[in-house]
Design a protein that fits this description.
- With 136 residues, the chain is an alpha+beta fold.
- The protein has 4 helices and 4 strands; from the N terminus they run H-H-H-E-E-E-E-H.
- The chain has a 4-stranded antiparallel beta sheet.
- The longest helix has 31 residues.
Amino acid sequence: MSLPETIPVRREPEAVPSSPSSELAWMGAVVLLIFIVAMVWSKLRGASATSSLASKGGHWFSRLQMRTAQAPQVRGSTRLTPTHSLHEVEWQGRRLLVGCSSHSIQVLSEIAIGAEASAEAGQGTDAGHAGKDGIR
């Protein structure tokens, strides 16, 4: 129902329907933009790993990669109870035996990875000493 033009009321302009081709063009532009961003990101990621800047740590992404390369590596885990476990971890040239419970984490044993090989050579096949991984 529309009011006569003689009545003084504020009238909103009629909505202009958009054409399907303009909506399709906008969707295509968004998809193209996403594709370009993904390509640039993958190129930067690949180039930073092989560039000279990556080896010197001059690029922010290569520094991030260097940090993740030094992350602790879990070599083995054993669950003792539902809330207690043991983990063998290598980190910064050391091998650690870590005990975990629901309330604490504690380093139980620590050995340098280089010293581990010499300790194994000195032990021979003694059954009373540490296992093949050199942790006591």
